[in-house]
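Service request form, structural biology core

Requester: graduate student, group of Dr. S.
Request type: structure prediction, single chain
Budget code: on file
Notes: please return the result as structure tokens.

Sequence provided:
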Amino acid sequence: MMDEQLLEILVCPETKEPVSLADKALVARVNEAIGRGTLKSKGGQPVTEPVDGGLVRQDGKRFYPIRDDIPVMLTEEAILLPLADA
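Core staff response, request fulfilled:
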């Protein structure tokens, strides 16, 4: 579970927009896409490691993965939203 104080100060490193916790349905969709091998990061690299959760940028266009309870707030590792149905 994310610490509420940490969540309040985290922002997208690209736009400085606030982020919020992704709901379980979105996390499941992201992990399904990872399992199919269809998901790429903003940097163009295949995403192969399942996520424990994620943070979604306020505009809904980026998903920052949470792995081992640590948010990965690197622009190049963000997942582009909405997810392609590939």
